[in-house]
Fold this protein.
Amino acid sequence: MIYYLLLPVFSLLLLTIQITVFDILFFGKAGLEISLILVVYAGFHLSLARGGILSFVLGFFLDCITGVMPGFFVFNYMLIFLISKAVSLKVYGGGIIFTAGFTFICALLGKLLIALMYEVLYGISVFYDVLNVSFLQAVVTGVSAPAFFALFYRLEGLLNVWESRSPDQL
Amino acid sequence: MTSPKRYYTVIAALVLVVVVSLTIFSLNFKSPGKAGFFKKIVLEMAAPLNYAVNLAFSSIGGAWKRYVMLVGLEKENRELNARVVSLTRDVNDYREISLEYARLKKLMNIKGGSGFPTVVARVVGRNRLSVFRTVLIDKGTADGIEPGFPVITAEGVAGKIMEVSWNASKVLLLVDYNSNIDALVQRNRCQGVLRGRGGSWCELKYVQRSEDVEEGDVVISSGLAGVFPKGLVLGKVAAVDKEEAGLFQRIRVSPAVDITKVEEALVILKRTGEDR
């Protein structure tokens, strides 16, 4: 229960930090999509219900704050979550290289999805522009993913301990 | 070993996601610009949170920026001094032109300014890393803002209001792929559509190859589509390419407003179709 209560607050805080703090520190030149790393992490470590709701909330908030195509981030994040979930059923996702590589692919997939939507919905070809802007961002996101996986793993542990001590579990 | 049942669950969830997303897409395409209740709530919560975090980190960010920028400061200082001399001369010229214009305008009995009320808004959130180019401002319907209102700065047009909640609004910047503004080249009045190209630049489309457009030409709003008042500065022509085959030339435009540095903006309270 605590998980679902904390989820909106935590998601909004995470997105605020992602949008504001990294923007100040890197002058908007380098990017780190922590929300995407969290979605991939959820695919490998959380249940379908918990991870699905987390991905939906993160996507919905991002849609509200920065999105131009309504519903795009919800679709994108939930798709990435489900792909991660499907992969996690077959592959052990604990290795550093695998984590970095898989998150990089997911980050790139999200950007390609945007380009595809522009092509389909508006007839504008933006593949080159999107790749030009987002490739470095996808690399940074992929490289930093293992560190964030370790952080999220610790946070999940803390949350589990908290939940096990809460009255509704007794 | 993984049971097939779990695969079926994932596939069922995937189908559900596609259906839900398509529903959200279609609902929003039916009523663009209207933020739903939950969206308004998120915007209301996000704007002050962004502002608070911005405030807390801006001093750290300032010190960090000063430290990083120190390296090129001396060279930049010399360049700026030279630029000040050149700009002072320009200011004098423009002051003369402005005085002459004011006299002529008085004679013609034309009302000055845009003729529309404006609201000053602070930029409280921006995501420069996203492919979508939007910023969040701290004014909403409570201040009379509606979707479609133009957003400008001292340098020129920044974008237009996309979604509004009670005390916050999302601004679609002119560099976003979804931004299309009817524009004119100031020098020769040739018309085109300024479309955002992501990153930090735009493209002036549908300008005939025969038109004489040069690097450095100022691009202004034509006022034809009814959203932006006529004559607002949009940007400067950065490159012209006539090499490609086709009816039109490829004109790259650098926006007048550096969207990465906008802190305050002016929202013109002008509904689509309203004239001066």
Remarks:
- Chain A touches chain B through 53 residues (CB under 8 Å).
- DSSP finds six helices and no strands in chain A.
